[in-house]
Amino acid sequence: MKGDKEITRALNKVLGQSLIAINQYFLHARIARHWGLESLNDSLYKQSIAEMKWSDELIARILLLDGLPNLQELGKVLVGEDVPEIIDCNLRLEKQKFDIITDAITLCESKRDYVSRQLLVTLKDGNEEYQDWLETQQDLIKDIGVENYIQSQMDDDKAP
């Protein structure tokens, strides 16, 4: 099925953001695990896997539209050096992704590609949920202090 080239470009732009997110969230998860923050590791790892699944759906859609998924033009991975910075880096990426996804949704509406639009709305919903979770973590750090937050992210039940 021959798709619109503008829509393919927009889907590839969203895909690029999702690929950055996979790497960034996976790295942050493993940093958290290295620091002994198993709960934070689990949350970040879970989000990395969600991004991978969304990327898979984007790739399938781009291929269906006779486009070529672009897996080469990756942007910068933001790496946090402490827990608050990890959360901040992920939040910045989510806000950036939100704008790109929203622009792509608007394009799909104008081109009447409602299937691509629905896929993007699903991604936007997941983006908003994760953004809300990150903002909640920032609020917790502010309310209880970074030391107490870090302690809350340790899981004593897991053996190495």
Automatic annotation (TrEMBL):
Swiss-Prot/TrEMBL GO biological process terms = intracellular iron ion homeostasis; iron ion transport
Q: Which InterPro entries match?
A: Bacterioferritin (IPR002024), Ferritin-like (IPR012347), Ferritin-like_diiron (IPR009040), Ferritin-like_SF (IPR009078), Ferritin_DPS_dom (IPR008331)
Q: In which residues is Fe cation 1 bound?
A: E51
Q: Which family does it belong to?
A: Belongs to the bacterioferritin family.
The EC code for this enzyme is 1.16.3.1
Q: Per its UniProt entry, what is the enzyme's top EC class, as one word?
A: oxidoreductase
Residues annotated as binding heme b: M52
The lineage, from the top, is: Bacteria, Pseudomonadati, Pseudomonadota, Gammaproteobacteria, Moraxellales
Task: Answer whether the UniProt record assigns the keyword Transcription to this protein.
Answer: no
* Keyword Kinase on entry: no
Q: What does this protein do?
A: Iron-storage protein, whose ferroxidase center binds Fe(2+), oxidizes it using dioxygen to Fe(3+), and participates in the subsequent Fe(3+) oxide mineral core formation within the central cavity of the BFR protein shell.
GO CC, alphabetical: cytosol
Which UniProt keywords are present, listed alphabetically?
Heme, Iron, Iron storage, Metal-binding, Oxidoreductase
**What name has this protein been given in UniProt?**
Bacterioferritin
For this protein, what is any one GO molecular function term? heme binding
Catalytic reaction list: 4 Fe(2+) + O2 + 4 H(+) = 4 Fe(3+) + 2 H2O; Fe(2+)(in) = Fe(2+)(out)
**Binding site residues for Fe cation 2:** E51, E94
Q: Which cofactor does it need?
A: heme b
Domain (Ferritin-like diiron): give its ranges: 1-145
